Amino acid sequence: MKTKTVKAYGTESAKTPLHPLDIQRRSLLPNDVEIDILYCGICHSDLHSIHNDWGGTTYPIVPGHEIVGRITKIGTEVTKFKVGNLAGVGCIVGSCGHCEHCHEGEEQYCDEGWTVVFNAPDKILGGQTYGGFSQAIVADANYVLKLPATIDLAASAPILCAGITVYSPLKHWNAGPGKKVGIVGIGGLGHMAIKIAKAMGAHVTVFTTSPAKMETAKELGADVAVLSTDAGQMATQSKFDLILDTVSARHDVNMYLNILKVDGSIVLVGLPNEPLEVGVFNVVNGRKSFSGSNIGGIAEAQEVIDFCAEHGITAQIELIRINQINEAFRRLEKNDVKYRFVIDMKSEGM
Question: How far apart are CA 108 and CA 296, in angstroms?
Fold first, then answer.
């Protein structure tokens, strides 16, 4: 298969800073589109992957899974898009297409395993897939998302991961009017969860360990902000239908299980490096659930893009140049960002 060389930023080891690389993109298949990447968000998953925190990273790695840009070429069988359309690519760029989960629009649970946009076996070109820290990407149109022409492109990039990651469980667990929803953590995921849950009509309480973020939570739309390190404040909380846990570090989930109503659920969407401990009586008493949720399928990703456009929801971002990427990752390790870094892929260095 013919290939095209494009510039990218990646690394050959967990200890090496990201730096310019040349990578290969495939020539267009009949149902492919080529996207000129304009912006790409930075996620904690990118950080974990380049450091091989979860194991399984294959180097060289080019991260990035919150990709937005403009279509420059389309395959001969593509009808969904036209050249010049704005489009996005999130975490999923392939799945089997025929299992029950794919038929139900939940490609993230594909029986045969879905293809991640970066650091996954490339079933078409061979080798590994490469992500959005690059000039361009070629993807099957079935896994490409439509973006409204009026959207703030840079601030909408995080919807493709952070947005869908919180939207999917909020929808699945029926967040809405009359429901009391808690959000643990105010970061890339948490700040989007606040906005989306509130737009769904839920009563939203935010739990944070940072006194400085108490007022921020309300500015983002929360009805109540609680300092989770304050035992007195925590003692007044109860009867939550759903608590969405967005924290990607080791923490005590039992304190949140104890404030769920009967049949309430905690849903973990953060990805801590270390195991979390759950006290058995904290779930047995009250028939409570400790669950998890993994991004969302393509149809649901399109749904959250349209939902956010309708409600005027975007991420709060810090736009950076590509040559600031290593400093951005250092700051991300310290949670020193409000609330998502997004790379201008047309900046100096690309």
Answer: 6
In a domain, 308, yes or no: no
Q: Over the range 27-51, which residues count as b (16 or more CB within 10 Å of their CB) and which as e?
A: ebeebbbbbbbbbbbbbbbbbbbbb
Contacts of 15 by beta carbon, 8 Å cutoff, 6+ apart: none
What is the domain-level CATH number for residue 211? 3.40.50.720
196 in Cβ contact with 167 (< 8 Å)? yes
89 and 137, same domain (yes or no):
yes
Residues 159, 38: contact at Cβ < 8 Å?
no
Domain that holds residue 322: 3-161+315-344
What is the pLDDT at residue 212? 86
Total of domains in the chain: 2
Q: Which pair of tokens denotes residue 290?
A: 């400790």
- Please compute the mean of the pLDDT values over residues 275-299 and round it to a whole number: 93
188 close to 46: Cβ distance less than 8 angstroms = no
79 and 139 belong to one structural domain:
yes
C-alpha closest to that of 222 among 200, 261, 248, 194: 194
CA 344 – CA 33 distance, rounded (Å): 21
**φ/ψ (deg, to 5) at 340:** -150, 130
Q: Is the full-model pTM beyond 0.70?
A: yes
On the question of pLDDT at 219 being above 80, the answer is: yes
- Residue 41 phi, psi (nearest 5): -75, 160
CATH number, domain containing residue 322: 3.90.180.10
Q: In whole angstroms, what is the distance from residue 47 CA to residue 63 CA? A: 9
